[in-house]
Amino acid sequence: MKKIIVFTFLCIATASFGQGFLHRDQQNIVDGNGKNIVLRGLGLGGWMVQEGYMIQTGAFAGPQYKIKQKITDLIGAEATDEFYKAYKKNGITKRDIDSLAAWGFNSIRLPMHYNLYTPAIENEKDGKITWLEEGFKMTDDLANWCAANKIYLILDLHAAPGGQGKDAAISDYDDSKPSLWESAANQDKMVAFWEKLAERYKDNPWIGAYDIINEPNWNFTGTNQNGCDETSNAPLRALQLRITKAIRAIDTNHLIIIEGNCWGNNYSGMFPLWDENMALSFHKYWNTNDTASIQTMLNYRTQYNVPIWLGESGENSNVWFEEAISLMESNNIGWAFWPMKKIENLAGVTSVTKPAGYDKILQYWKNGGVKPDAGFSKKVLMQMAENYKMEHLTIRYDVIDAMFRQVQNNDTKKYKSHKLPGRIYATEFDLGQNGFAYSDKDIANYDGTKFTQWNKGGKMRNDGVDIEVCTDKTTNGFQVSFIEDNEWLQFTTEVKKEGSFDIEIRYSSEKAGGKLYLEQDGKKISESTELPVTGGETVWKTIVLKNVAMKQGINKIRVHFEGGNFNLNFLEFKTAK
Length: 577
Prior knowledge:
Elements: H1 2-16, E1 23-25, E2 28-30, E3 40-43, H2 64-75, H3 77-91, H4 94-103, E4 107-113, H5 133-149, E5 152-159, H6 168-171, H7 184-201, E6 207-211, H8 234-248, E7 255-259, H9 261-264, E8 278-284, H10 295-304, E9 308-314, H11 318-330, E10 334-338, E11 350-351, H12 358-367, H13 374-387, E12 394-395, H14 397-403, H15 405-408, E13 419-420, E14 422-425, E15 438-439, E16 467-469, E17 478-480, E18 487-495, E19 499-509, E20 514-520, E21 523-524, E22 529-531, E23 536-550, E24 553-563, E25 567-575
Parallel strand pairs: 3-4, 3-10, 4-5, 5-6, 6-7, 7-8, 8-9, 9-10, 13-18
Antiparallel strand pairs: 1-2, 11-12, 14-25, 15-18, 16-17, 18-24, 19-23, 19-25, 20-21, 20-22, 20-24
Helix pairs in contact: 2-3, 3-13, 4-5, 7-8, 11-14
């Protein structure tokens, strides 16, 4: 019965898909009709491979095996299995893929953990390689959901047998066991794994590519433990060449993507290339978004006549996202950002709500002390798994807007309808680029050695504006904070009837210097008004701007902060008497 289902899917997919397989055409990735394809993708990080930072255990349990040990110690093996079953079931569903397609993504990168497909070598007998159904079933389901939405699925081996890098959380590397590079058995298993995938998906045109190995970071001959000073990378090249040959003995259809050392970026010694249907991946985090930042990869593309692909990027501000994607697309480079789901995720398209009681568990895991009750802990963890369902996520529409609409133009768009008379919360400023929807001085992290926090409060939105939880009695839950001189916010408003308004400014401050005015179409429409000290960050007061004239219809109002040192909750527009 299973074979019939798989065959039926393949027939439907092939019949409904006239573009054929993605492949290399000199320096471009094209479909079967030769049409250039710019991959706009998202990585499903955390689903098959847990990384500690995504569930806030990174400081003490980064790799998945350590996370699982912590959970097992807390609630026992049986309950741990129950948690992981729910976690994986809810982590990615058809509704997630439907949503990604609706938001504009045309591809998905699946980070795979080998242990969902085949046991670790220490659990095999007599050197044989056996297979597990779970990973293949998860991949089949995802491939079907992608096909239904006409988006490409890129298979990425994120956690290779034994682990491929010293950055342990990425590949679930356990340094007490032989790594991928220290074990012929692990390498044999990796080759067999790709042969198995090639056999299964060789005729599936919605599988976009095989990303052989994610972010290898290993010192073979150099001094940098992550392989950043390697000059030959001979073992990495040899293994990827071997896997390519194994795939090609089965599957001549699919694009094969390779990665360099040093988290995918060190290609020293990786040339010449060995296959005609190949692309180079690179990863980009926490640097500038100028041509110089990708020049090495651009040179490889030209010199070796091969496509390049930004296989992983993200974890930054909306400003950085728009800049990076604009840079990629202006150079005909596809991209896949990271990740989709993370607890309290500001810099992603969705955020998972932290369950009540989870902080108590985190504190115990980190510091020890009184062990939380197993029943309580299981309830909290099962709620975490439940919170991964799409219907419980917070969707970051500002991030989606930055990744798609803002790449096309610098127009602004209302974040929320503001009909006047009425109240406008400060955090509900327009969607758009810095300098058009708002102006803030710290807008992105451009330095991998010195972190710059773009939203110092880390709440609600991923723009440069600093947002914190609000303590006022009347609030939408958040406030604009850390306001500096000459910053501003823009709000698209709809005025029901032309006239004058008295505008109540709700603010708090413990330092002098606050001052603001309102502007429309480049002209001041209010007097500059000083904001006296209220007596503390949580002491809220109101000051009124009198008789501000506004025309009927759509008005884009900018609130200019001539002086900072205050927090802003809302502006209340009332018809002047």
